[in-house]
Fold these 4 entries.
Entry 1:
Amino acid sequence: MISLRLKTWALAFAALSLAACDDDDDKTVPHAPTTDTDTTTISSTTIEANRFVSDVMEEYYYWNSELPNLDYTKQSNTTAYFYNLLSSKDRFSFITDDAEGYFSEEEGNYTSFGWTYTLSLVSSGSDQVVAIITQVFDNTPAAAAGARRGDVIYTINGTQMNTSNYKSLIALTSNVTFGGTHAAEEISYTMTAAEISVSPIAKTATFTLDNGQLAGYLLYNDYKDPFLDDLKAVFDDFKSKGVSEMILDLRYNHGGSITSEIALSSALAPEDVVKAHDPMMYYDFNKTLQALYPDYYARQNTAEYFVDDIANLNLSRLVVLCGGETYSAAEATIWDLKPFMDVVTIGSTTGGKNTMMYVLSPSDFTYSQTGKPYYSTTINNWLIFPIVAVYMNANYEAFDTTDGDGMDPDFEVNELSGLMTSGLYDLGDPKERLLMSALEYLNTGSVTTNKALAADAPRTVTTSLAEKPKLLYKKHKVNQ
């Protein structure tokens, strides 16, 4: 019998530097090429890593009934082997051989310029790529260089980006010169990426509404457990100030910890629901797990519950700012709260990840009788993040992702309106397009939608190429 100590994750992390990205035409994860390895001499370490992949996928993978028949002892490339096992329905499962680097990022530590961006084609049918800077973090190389939200980067080291070269250009990190425009102004700055630490709580503010009530604003970029105390402090502050309306900005949130998602949802939900510790979400695992371990994996046994260890605002409605980079735990927050309160979304259609992952390490597997490792310790640099479940709200409902995206907004508003002519207002500024729309809704009950704003929307920016997120997580132990 093997003892497996699972760390459960669902949803992803935000891109904080111009790192390698993948076309949306591909799966969300970086795919390795299919290789013919029958004539290759394969090391015992590679075979052991392949065995780890095979064991995880056969038991935990949500689509394990669709796995192709590939002999793991004949695969010379573990990464390629993993991606060749994935279902055509799967856009998010991934693998890494840099476990240390991954967990460092989960602590908020990055080697980065200190900005986030969206990659786009300049027009339909064009191969020219631009990077639109969406956030610049304080005390980073980007901030020191004078980069601003709304900068449009056309060239890197003097070379214009296109669909053939942009991946190699944005991977550069040392003494890199970026050229472009900010509204009608030409810009240029040179930077070297540095070690930075970034909190997912990017900005908080309060706004007095026309009726005298106070609205809180939180720009939340990742669901990261190391910052859970900081999140609780935010809601302690909102509650002490008498916040009675809330604007939650998840437009760049790729997801993260289920534990943090439960805490955030518990701060926002009606007080009676939280005090009753009602179920807020369920999971649907594969039939293998449900049959082997019905006491744990059967759908009715997989509830996550509201908690009362965070200040609760006792809201009856919530305004969420969202978009194509809103994924997983961020989408789950919207979806899980809908059965309990009025959740109004403003922005664009969400990314579409209604699934949960486990993060699995070879070190999680031991012989239950002795506690000794099941795999060789030489493969502990590997981590696998397979889709293991679909998450559902308290009504056992999952939102539809068959079109490759997620939930449509209640009010469609283009946050890039005005980009090419006047730039973009800073996040948290009441004149910033999405925040302005949220305040308009709270004051009037309606929003001036994208149709009316189309005149100053950036017509040249049409197709996102930005890398999508990969997971959301929760930590617990399961003995098998």
Entry 2:
Amino acid sequence: MPLNYAEIGETKTIQRVGGNEKTKKFLEELGFVAGATVSVVTSMAGNIIVNMKESRVAISKEMAARIYV
């Protein structure tokens, strides 16, 4: 399922990252790679904030839809 459907507080493991090459590269540079764990902190106005590798990252709902957990 896409990351934007994960419940707040849930910890999930990334299965794959979709999108075009530019999008994949951008997300990989932020740490969104297969096997990494993410935890949804909050969701506001369609955008989500996730905990990843001891830091928080805010991404749009469009980007979150390309990350499958």
Entry 3:
Amino acid sequence: MLKRIISNIKTNQQLRRKVETGNKAQDNVWLYNFWKVRAEDMWLTRFLRYHGLMPSNKRFSFYSVFGNRRVVNYDNREVKIFITGENVHSHNFRAYSDNMLSEKKIDLSLGFDYIDDARYVRMPLWLRTQFAPEWSEKEIIEHVNRLRYPGIGERDKFAALVARYDWGNTRSQIYESLKNVGHIQCPSKVLHNDETLKTEFNDDKPAYLRQFCFNVCPENSNYKGYVTEKMFDAVASGCIPIYWGSDNQPEPDVLNHEAIILWSIGGDNSQNVSKIQHLWENKGELNDFLHQPRLKDGAEEKILLMFNKLEDKFKQVLS
């Protein structure tokens, strides 16, 4: 018992020291449990400043999942926001599976889950990677149209797999199933066999992907609503996504699933393999598949609604 008490005291002292000395990014914004990032560069900070929602007389704290959640107890700032793009239901981040909504001190929580709570707004990671926080409604709609019909051009390479991690071996499984259909180029850490992303494209992933007909882009883990940048990177680059994740119902109000090949991890993918091989060997049908609309009619309204909900919720919090 005594050892536990001493351990708790040390932990609390460490947390307090972190609040007192660490992660301060600018006068009225502090970050906790984030990767190395400057607050002024964060999507959410830029969004709030653009919309005039970060008054100088309010002190903000942003929390994420890469550390101990108890830091929220040692910070007396007026506005406390939880934000994550990670799968909080996976083993790595299960301590945050409630999106910190059980913490009464949290004013607003932002994540990918579908949650009906007055202190929660759904803001999946792809929204932040595809849409600049300073864009007007017109600019958002214009980008939706670019995503719906991305430039296809000439593509003579089969598939790319760009990933640093493969925690569940999902990417390796797809690679093994398709490696005999065509050459799959892997320029990142997973199954690395290609240097050109770095040497020829200066780590410009969108430019690199525009060479390929297919992009193997499954998530690392599966949960309803958990859709990261991977799917939308493929869409924006004009590739056909080979995808697994979000219960294989990724963003059903936004994405046209007819333009996606949905993989079944642990299931029978013989039809997927046959379909991909058939498309690769029949360029006319491949071209037709590539030119399908990638986003549904009405996707712009759904995306604008996400932006509007976020702005309205912050107005409520600040009032």
Entry 4:
Amino acid sequence: MANKKRGYIPLWRCIDQNPILNDGKPFDRFHAWVDLLLEANHRDKTFSADGRPVTVRRGEKCTSILHLAEKWHWSRNRVKRFLATLEANSMCTTKRTNAGTIINIVNYGIYNDIQFADEPTDEPADGPADGPQTIMVKNEKREARPKVTAEGVQIE
């Protein structure tokens, strides 16, 4: 994030389902970080664990070290060391609970604040002047163009 002027691309969460990218090989640290970004909640979510409601906020993921180790093809100690490195670099925080380990992505909004035109926003209409800007993307269908020959005659 040293050079924010380079921009970013939106990345669909389902990219991890692509068989070319999901080849069963061990993750490197970059892919593990991207996986955490993809798996973090994009909105608050509540679920039940042992009969108690657990709320996982936007930018957080509730998981286990064992689950990450199996998914990334790493040892549990390697996962713990990686998460400790992320914490030391102020990229995430972790909190152990009875429901699992909650990983909080620090500054999650920097990675995931793109607002589509058809989604409601939580900000007031006059919104704050400073802070991250949202990109408005219109998702509207265009009318089909009439088919025309090289001479300009419309084909029905």
